[in-house]
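User: Here's a chain of 249 residues. Predict its fold as tokens.
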Amino acid sequence: MIRMAFGDVVGVKSLAFDLPNRKLEVVHESDAQVLLDRLAPLNLGATLKDSAPLSATAQIPTSSSQDDADEARTLRLLLMINGVMFFLELALGLVAQSTGLIADSLDMFADAAVYGLALYAVGKAASLKVRAARVAGWLQLLLALGALAEVMRRFLFGSEPESVLMMGVGVLALAANVTCLVLISKKRDRGAHMTASYIFSANDVIANLGVIAAGVLVALTGSPYPDLIIGTIIGVVVMNGARRILQLR
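Assistant: Prediction complete.
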């Protein structure tokens, strides 16, 4: 999102992200305030820590075409895995009457949208990148609202989630996300977007474990509430991700 926010700012040469410490180093020729203004809508709490002239001997990082091609292949594979799991988990979630599985399928869609956008954005103008991101953001928001509405409907009118199917699909989704995690771990140092993708996949593994745990609790208690709770949590997380994408300009 930060890369797209800076996409049409003249004079930005490179971005170096330190995600664990929430730091960003920008090599640029524009006013630093312009960059801060672009970050403001993302609500990341961005502040200017330091600004200094670039040394004449400093080297601006570049990437090789072979590395870019390897990265693109990884992104295509991740897109395929998440796209297939979105449709599979959504369909089986409806059959199992599980809001947890339905919401988790939307998390798969959110990841697929990010990977698809990353591939689409290669070589495109900044305005097209932001436009594509907003389309994905609106669709993600609508799906998240639909999932939360389904949670509310099942809360009011009752549901009987199939715990065995919930756990089985949860395990399948867990295997898919662990595979994504292994694939992305090899390239997580290739840039902020790849590091972020690694973090997203790790969070997805946690969400899958939540769905499996909810299935176990449904089986033990005979209550649909564990499923409704996990569905609500995942739906809110997906909706918040859509909100941040839509704040790009």
